[in-house]
Structures are given as structure tokens and as C-alpha cells.
Amino acid sequence: MSETSAYTIRSMFSIASNVCLADWAVVRYTVPSWLKVFGSLLEEVVVVVDERPPTGRIAELNPDLWDEGKLWHELSLLKEHDSRVRIVRLSECPSEAVSRKWFGKSRPVRCQAGTPILAFICALEETHQDWVMRTDSDMLFHEAGWLRAAENLLEQGTVVEPPRLALDTQVVSTRALMVKRSCFAKCLPIKPWRLHPLGRLHRALKGRPTWLALEQMLEREKIKGRIKHTILPRTLGFSLHVAQRQYSIEPWFGTMVKRVETGDIPTEQAAQWNLSPQCWSAATPDLHPIETSARWVPHSR
After folding, report:
1. For residue range 111-135, what is the model confidence (pLDDT) as tens digits?
2. 253-262 and 24-38 are packed helices; what angle lies between their axes, rounded to 10 degrees?
3. Please, what sign has the CA dihedral across residues 96, 102, 107, 109?
4. Using alpha carbons only, what angle is made at residue 162 by residues 136 and 175, rounded to the nearest 5 degrees?
5. Number of independent structural domains in the chain
6. If 0-12 CB within 10 Å is exposed, 13-18 middle and 19+ buried, where does residue 301 land?
7. Structural domain containing residue 25
8. Does 3 map to a domain?
9. Which of 14, 27, 204, 219 could form a disulfide with 127 if both were Cys (CB 3.0 to 4.6 A apart)?
10. DSSP assignment of 105-155, as one string?
């Protein structure tokens, strides 16, 4: 049982995530944190690796951190220290079949800004459990009851998001969302939505994709009434987004992760879904480095 859960749920669940070449620094903290927070409720963490260089707006973020060697090194350490971690190359996934299931004849790989689409859905489809949380590799969680609250909603085929800090919208986000695959499958395929005509022309002239992001597609489907979606209340815990990869190489990052796991965050941070170092430095002047070995939560089956 996890340190933060005092109850059982009807079935274990999987986490599905994906990484690119710039994610090596953040996954060495986030993945061990997920394993710790969810404990024995978590069957596996499936990480799909997209080895191709980022494109579009995504390519402009964190170019100094692109390092294939470091990424594979960190992923190998994750597998070594916890048997629940499973690494899958995107190139080895049954992409055609997955795309057909989700989008019919269309084959969206990345959206117009470079955000993954195929890697997202392949990660979800690679999991063994029916109940799965698809999350970005830069998300942290505090669990105080939202897993249990999600159960009945998932049975109804609803797309469920963990609580967000500073919730001010009900718009779908793929930063972290949960589905019961067998129930959600009844909503598939979804329409592969594209940009408006002028936007399509602009992207096409630059040789870029014209697809909307997956979360925007899901939002359109929700508006059309073809899927149900809800975000769980903040009283049941929260999710926190590490918006900048550079934060994860700072000496204070590990200590901050440990505090998020227990729900101990500054008041100012509670008003923002994205991690704000300014909030933490003002409230916690004694933030200090965490030993590398303390990142791990060894687990074997």
C-alpha cells in the first residue's frame, strides 16, 4: 500500500507515459515519485520512447538538454531499480493498428506544434491493465482520495483527470488523464481534428503537420457529446506540472518532489498548476539537494 493511500481500489492500474530526448533529467525524479505515491496500487509504468528529434514549438524548448545517451542511461536505471518500469520504443509499437483504432483512416503522429499524438496513444495501448492513467513525464502527484473517486466514473466510460492546482477551467488536458480502456473503446475512433483552413495552409507551406493536439481533439469530441470528461476536486489531492525541464537539474528539485508527494506545498504554489520556483524559494529557504540514492523506491515481484 502506498504511503499516501489508506484504502483499496477494485483493481490495480497502469501508468502510461512517453519521453523524448530532452526528458532524461525529469524522469529520474517523476517516475520514482509515481512508484512511491501509488505504491502497490500501481501495476506498471510503461514509458514509450520517441527517439526522433522534436519538431515545431516543442523543438524550441530545452534544446540544451537533448541527449539520447543520458536518456537511455536514466531509463536503464529506472528499470534496474524497479521491476514495474517497462520501456518501449515508439518504432516497435504497432502504430498502424493503434492509429486505425483511434482515428480510422487518418494517421496523426504529432500535432501542428510538435506535441506527440501517436506516442501518447501507443503508450496507453501498451499497458496491461484495463484502468490506465496517461500522463506526461513531467507531472507530479499528491494522492488523497482521487483514485477511489475515479472508479465509478471510469466504469461509465468517462475520461477522468486527477485534481489540478488552481483549477479555473474544465477544458480537457492530456497532462494527466485516466480511462478504463474497455469502456473508453466504445468512444473510438474519434475524429482527427485539424487546424482551421488558414492555419492548415500556413503549416503546410512550412512542411509541418496540420493536426490539432490530442487534448484539443478530445475537447472537440466532448463538445460534440461523443465523450464524457470530468476533473476531480482539489480536496482529493492534486497534480503539479514541471513546466521547465531546467528545474529538474537544480539542486533543490529533489527536496521539492518529496514535499509534493506528501501535499506539503507553499500557499502561493497552490494557486498555480505549473511549478513556480519563486513560490518555493520564498516559503522554503532551506531547500537543499537530495541524495541520488534517495530517488529510488526499490520494488520487485
Report:
1. 998 899 999 999 999 999 999 999 9
2. 30
3. negative
4. 20
5. 1
6. exposed
7. 13-295
8. no
9. 14
10. T----B-TTS-BSHHHHHHHHT-SSSEEEEE-TTEEEEESSHHHHHHHHHH
